[in-house]
Amino acid sequence: MEMVKAVNLKKYYITDTYEVHALDGVSLSAQDGEFLAIVGTSGSGKTTLLNLLGGLDVPTSGGVWIRGNSLKDMDKEERTIFRRRNIGFVFQQYNLVPVLSVYENIVLPLRLDGAEIDGEFLEEIVSLLGLDDKLERLPETLSGGQQQRAAIARALLVKPAILLCDEPTGNLDSVTGMEVTGLLKSCSQRFHQTVLVVTHQEEVAQAADRIVRLEDGRICGDSGGHDSAHSDGNSVGHNGGHNGGHNGGDSDGHSVGHSMDMPGKEQVL
Ligand SMILES: Nc1ncnc2c1ncn2[C@@H]1O[C@H](COP(=O)(O)OP(=O)(O)O)[C@@H](O)[C@H]1O
Ligand SMILES: [Mg+2]
Is 20 in the pocket of ligand 1 (CB under 6 A)? Predict the structure, then answer.
């Protein structure tokens, strides 16, 4: 089942003094249960792509469909509600609310939505992520890896169709980073979710089912595109792309702080 589809996405930032083509015609489709890595050097458009796929930002042109629902056919409020119910986000900086316990953080999106908490599912996630004895703790008393697990639990609890992760292991040591990557992978299999992970760490990318490479706002490689990797909509089929190319260091670390707001973007929750 096609969970996410992007068609000819463009995001241009134009002012009097500069014109940046952050994304310049990206088409991409991903199925349920697929675990995709998006790689590329700093400034290649990875965060922009994730923000557009998640409806946190609107494209200059082109469209995004999540489970067949077009994001641009929704007004801002509809999009916020749709996002809360269908899309999970995990950021490099965890974005946990510091004054809330781990438990309160995890259930926050459901509370905001006035939705029931599925206790059994919550237990399953908490145990999968090894957070059983951390639920009453405040985020700052946890290690980075534990905080990231809490952020993943929060994203998973709403049973999102897709999970969008922007450098989720960027603040973690490599062992913890691979552990978190493994957890994201098992979540995609277990819950049939589409998981997209932006990363500049090659070992994280190698754990994915499919690697999409971005360069200058365009897809320059796709190890297993189901759909098009070109802006013209022609299919490249399986293994139509390549896995080559180097992957320079990306240390941009787009900080979104500890608030749930994305500056200049729509609210995450
Ligand atoms: N709000 C903005 N205004 C102007 N340029 C931007 C803005 N956001 C991102 N960009 C530019 O778009 C390009 C892609 O950025 P980004 O998606 O953050 O890249 P990545 O996540 O791959 O490092 C970069 O050149 C960046 O400077
Ligand atoms: Mg980025």
Answer: yes
Q: Which has the higher per-residue pLDDT, 260 or 77?
A: 77
* Tokens describing residue 98: 């510091």
Q: How many CB atoms lie within 10 A of CB 85?
A: 15
At residue 106, φ and ψ (nearest 5 deg) are: -65, -40
Kindly identify the ligand whose nearest atom is closest to the C-alpha of 17: 1
Taking alpha carbons only, the member of 22, 39, 38 closest to residue 30 is 38
* DSSP type of residue 71: G
Q: Is the CB of 33 under 6 A from ligand 1?
A: no
Closest residue CA from atom 26 of ligand 1? 43
**What predicted TM-score, i.e. pTM, was given to this entire model?**
0.82
> To the nearest whole percent, how much of the chain has pLDDT over 90?
65
Distance between CA 71 and CA 162 in Å, rounded?
Answer: 14
What mean pLDDT is predicted for residues 215-244? 58
Structure tokens at 243: 């896995």
Buried b (16+ CB within 10 A) or exposed e, 53-67: bbbbbbbeebbbbbe
Q: pLDDT confidence of 224, banded at 50, 70, 90? A: confident
